[in-house]
């Protein structure tokens, strides 16, 4: 999957709408300390479904919304749109928006979807919020120090099979609830005898 464009509005320090074109090849982001380089990487992770405030360097998910400065009021929402091209050349537009007090909403190519659908889309394409392709500060040390199970998880993300685990967990949970329903049905039938 190729990420081609990123649009941010009200996300962390990006209070004004900003659009970045990501050209093929290696992209570097340079700028003085605190100008928002890491916030950009976090925006990519966030739109891909990241839900851990810790990975967003924040206390809660609403902390990604522009918090205001001495001269500018805070914003009520944050929005990130990512344009990508999948391995079959199909265009993909993924949008995530969070409003204060209302949580997150996702759209893929204009249709409302669940967070899980977005995470699975990226996991199947061997990328996503936890992809080893997104290398943030301290990540290299983390990879070196990772336990074998964590390394396996990284390899699975890279191989594009992370989504299969999510689907397996879903299937197992459906199986458990179906088994419970069957047991209940058997009890009811036994009561009718
Ligand atoms: P460094 O080079 O030091 O790692 P950086 O360029 O990666 O810095 P970031 O860490 O991306 O910079 O950005 C930090 C800036 O983002 C800080 O100025 C911080 O105040 C601002 N910031 C983070 N969250 C918010 C928010 N919710 N509202 C407003 N500003 C925010």
From TrEMBL:
Residues 168-193 form a coiled coil. It is found in: Cytoplasm. ATP binds at residues 32-39. It comes from the Bacteria. Contains large globular domains required for ATP hydrolysis at each terminus and a third globular domain forming a flexible hinge near the middle of the molecule. These domains are separated by coiled-coil structures. Required for chromosome condensation and partitioning. Belongs to the SMC family. Homodimer. This is Chromosome partition protein Smc. It comes from Pontixanthobacter luteolus. The chain holds residues 1 to 193 of 1141 of the full protein.
